[in-house]
Model the fold of this input.
Amino acid sequence: MVAIADSVPKPVARFRFILDRRNVLGSIMIAPAILYVLLLVGVPFLMAVYYSLSAYTIYDPSWSFVGLANFEDVVQDPVFQQTLYNTFIFTFGSQMLGLILGKFGALVLLRPFPGRKFVRALVILPWAVPIALATVAWQWMFDSLYSVINWTLIALGVVTRSQAPNWLGTPHLAMLSVIVVNAWRFFPFAIVIFLAGITAVPQDVLDAATVDGAGFWRRNYQIIMPMILPIVAIGLVFGIVFTFTDLSIVFLMTMGGPVGATSVLGFAGFQTGIVSGDVSHGAAISLFMLPVLFIVVVAMLRFIRRREV
Amino acid sequence: MAAVATRDIVKKFGEVTAVNGISLNVPNGEFMVLLGPSGCGKTTFLRIICGLERQTSGDLLIGGDLVNDIPPRARGVAMMFQSYGLYPHFTVRHNIAFPLKTQGVPRAEIGRKVEWASQLLGIGHLLDRRPRQLSGGERQRVALARALVRQPTALLLDEPLSNLDAKLRTSARQEIKQFQQRVGVTTVYVTHDQVEAMGMGDRIAVIDRGQVRQVGTPSEIYDNPADRFVATFVGAPPMNIVARNGSYLGFRPENFLPKDMVKDAAFTEFQFRVDRSEYLGSERIVYGVLEGFDAKEVVTAKLPPAHVAEEWIRPGEWHPFAVRDAALRHFDNDGKRTSRR
Amino acid sequence: MPRGTLTKALQETSFYGAVAFFFVLSAFPFYWMVITSFKTNGDLYNVSNTPFWFNDPPTLEHFRYLFEKTLFVRWLLNSLIIGVCVTAITLVTALPAAYSLARMTGRNGEALGIGIFLTYLVPPTLLFLPLSRVMAGLGLQNSMWSLVVVYPTFTIPFCTWLLMGFFKALPVEIEEAAIVDGCNLFGAFVKMAIPLSLPGILTVVIFTFTLTLQEFVYALTFISASDQKPITLGVATDLIRGDVFYWGEIMAGALIASIPVAIAYNLFLDRFISGITGGAVK
Done:
């Protein structure tokens, strides 16, 4: 038997082991992150709210409180009304298109075929590559003169050179173009989300459904879809938030044009607040994103909560 | 090594009371088993002793010192986890040395102690492997070596055998008990398996719903259960309990025998109707009901098959059975045992 | 059974048609980048040429111009510096925060974690106005260092969320064993949790870096000086003289900047997805 020293320490002052308490150390460890976010997200957010209620411009930093006057100006402006409408069209259109492409893409990629890995890797690209760069490539593809799309249409005999569409110079076509580009940017994300959801559905559930006589479509829409709904909802929240507040695609492709046909909230806020220096009206425009974001976030929280149950 | 004592330990998780006032003394060097069904609070209690949980109220003493506010690292206890908690990114040698390193033990000393512990457990040849390259039994030994190497004040084990297959479990049981005896360390061992508890414990504390129902040696627990819970939790099949005159009568299945097999002069006779019998090789388990008792109270008898032939005991037949009076236990209406006998 | 064979053939054709559709849809813009960046200007701006292939021999002219006559190398360097600094800041704050949320703060931590993650959804277009004033106040206007300060506002929440998932997936017994074996709580974090989640941390590093490369709005609003621009902003806005787009150079620059991000995404996608969804399907 080896002698074992009786080395139990005597009770000591409470503070000696203060860092051994989970709540104390936990608070210390999380503090830097919270501080960072509070200072550079929370404070600027309050500033944005205040700007929108003041007469602040970069030429006249007076901070005088004007109440809801900025919002009144903005709402009565027909250009803004157009912008708000555009934003909804842009978001709804590109998310719908993105989801449809995503769902079918996922179905295609679920089935094994030679070269599937390679195709999957390629399909991720639109989402991975910096959107500004991909947008520039699309802008070049939509070029008024050298558009490869138009060249193909002409070569196929669909249109003649004189009828060839000016994609970014015609209001409806310009909107369609930015929607397509945004949908193109998001559909790989949708595919990935769908795939993650579908592969997480337990095989025995599917087998049970098959044994019970469910065919391909019934399995798809009555078994798989309800099971992956939470994950798809979370993916959709991301898509909606980032599309609704987007600035880069419109800025790079159309500059909001032609004549405001593709102007969206983010872009209008940028134009008014940064380019024209009218900070308070710019902030008021940006703040119109809040209600939508709020609804989306509440929906997301409910899904997260349901997930915990 | 040191004695472990608790005084009225209570642990609440929000509304739920996991441990509801446990006072327990584990003298120096004793092998104490905490036995109870899953969710009874035994693991929580063990985690309080080791310091991973802080009790809501009550005192904990290790070696006579109050350690309520002392973190695990300063309590000097060792713990072996259900899935061992080996450090997967360390070699076996590093795993065993780790508790010494954190205490700042000099290198030469660490080498010597690792050598000692690995010799003790016969894992010298595994020292340079990683945990994932070990079998279940080897992992258990490494975990045990890691626990013993620092010569802990107390060794705490949380269902350490539940990850082993049935065959390994028997030998592992023996090993743990052997090493405990050789090192003589105070041990608290949590399990829900009564075979482990009976086979290893110097004493057993039976726990239910956060409270100690009975503390005693294995034979005390088995022969003289303090209440109906202990009586029916320990033993397989469990003790038969039948209601009689507002109280309860209990007897073990192996004491419930055909009348002519009972040799004692003092016995109590029952008429037993056989419903079903199971032949298990070394024993025959017979299920049935007693005449004059509630027909829903199924009574089991454990008979030696060599003495009771298949033809003798058929479903539907009535037979005279008896229990030695010395083997009868009486429980009152609340389930507490009322007499020695 | 000719009818069965016919249906089968039809099914196969439509399936591979769908594969081809997605293939072209995803890859064509990048193919277009490649082909544009290697074409001579005479080839590019001639509408009678077939645009899909080289009519003149391929040229490195655009790449040479990009590296020698523009600030492209400077932008690459800026992006690298920004990426490294932001990743460092993010790791230093998000690692302990994520561990705290995963292991130390209990039920409050869960709410706090969701709260932090939600800040990731606060869009740059809502914050760029006040933040540009803040940067002016810090004397960082028109400087790439303003991006180093601002980018952690979205990388910290995002990475804290991802890392929290990775930490939660670790078996808690290992850290508890370390605590019983003599570590304090912080020691268990440093000696056990961090080494054991190295793959997760690597994922986070890669994604932080790509997030900084992808960001466009803050860069656009904070920086107008050419030599301070990160690569995405530089390529997208600085290769235009008046009305003239230098398409060959723009596509060459876009190509170079896209390649590392594309590779990183494909390598780490699966871990990223499991982190972002946090096991929403169970």
